[in-house]
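A further point concerns the way the authors explain their paired sequence and structure data. For illustration, here is how one protein appears when written out as sequence plus structure tokens:
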Amino acid sequence: MTDEEIRKKAIKLINQGDEKLLFDLIQYNRKHGTKSDEEIVDMWNRGYKSLNKYRNSDGNYDVQHALSVLSKD
């Protein structure tokens, strides 16, 4: 998979806000990470709350714009 394909898939998953993605992140963290489930859920919720500032007219998150703004900091 190319970087561009990975980026597009990630943006699609973010726009879906899928609970399965959260579950997968928790499972990955349990195996490879050090955070508690509660910390992962908290970060997930804070991330989506922040992304709400970057919704576009069709209701999806404008992830590219959010990343460009964040990378300027």
